[in-house]
Amino acid sequence: MEKATESVSQIQVRRVLRDNNIDLQGYIGKGAYSKVQVGVNVKMGSKVAVKVIDTSSGSEYVRRFLPREIEVVRNLNHANVVKVFQVLSMDNKVLLVEEYGDNGDLLKRIKDKTRLTEKESKPLFRQLIESLVYLQSQSIVHRDVKCENVFLDANDNVKLGDFGFARFLRQNEISSTFCGSRAYVAPEILSGVSYTGFTVDTWSAGIVLYVMTTGVMPYDDRNPKKMLERMLSHRVRFPRMELSTELKTLVFEILHPTSTSRLSYSLICSSPWLHDTKYEMKSGTKSSS
């Protein structure tokens, strides 16, 4: 029997999912264009995340970005990228049935611990870079890499998710779309300059690394003009805390205002801070809860 407090739309969503062996269990959160619920695949007995996107608004996201997101996620297949199992369409709704991050997202982890140690950060950042290497190999630019979109599975393996602003970007193809989260976006996006390549994701990964290891943002996005000036002058200030020179050098070199001068993924992995961190997936039944 359907819950009496549910709307007709919610009941329809529940029924469509049930027809596809998904039993909704609860509510996870809400984004700018969707809400996310947790469900169980009754055949597999495993948890899934269900992203419910309302298409009735006819917003720019629905018209322009959602078709791209669906095109991108259908074929993604990498250990450090959230797997989308099903894309279901119904009246005024699109449902993405996705891999569930048992241990929440990276931002929650950082808030719970104030900040992560460099030892804790290294394997997570190495896996994040591996996910970006994969996306580059598929000619996909994410454009919204941030701590909230880095999910952790039951063993604390990174799962990069939320491809709402992603698109295919072929070699030498340019984009001028302003998208992403202001605190994480590269200066060329903030400046409204056309960009090419995957260095916008490299910049955002550098911001993630800074936030992981310090617990704070490198730039104050409440004043975008001043923030952009600091970015373009290549000023990166670190809080007074114990941070290795190798870490600070790596962050500084990733956050270069000139996109072509940012470190490549291979140079990031071979940097003095990360070179001794082997890429591997953790296994077992570890849980942060």
UniProtKB/TrEMBL annotation:
Residues making up the signal peptide according to the UniProt record: none
BP terms from Gene Ontology: intracellular signal transduction; microtubule cytoskeleton organization
Record GO cellular component, one term: cytoplasm
ATP-binding is among the record's keywords: yes
Pfam families for the chain: Pkinase
InterPro entries attached to this UniProt entry: Kinase-like_dom_sf, Prot_kinase_dom, Protein_kinase_ATP_BS, Ser/Thr_kinase_AS
GO terms of molecular function: ATP binding; tau-protein kinase activity
Location of the Protein kinase domain: 22-274
Keywords: ATP-binding, Kinase, Nucleotide-binding, Serine/threonine-protein kinase, Transferase
Annotated PROSITE patterns: PROTEIN_KINASE_ATP, PROTEIN_KINASE_DOM, PROTEIN_KINASE_ST
Homology family: Belongs to the protein kinase superfamily.
Protein name (database record): Protein kinase domain-containing protein
Species of origin: Pristionchus pacificus
Taxonomic lineage of the native organism: Eukaryota, Metazoa, Ecdysozoa, Nematoda, Chromadorea
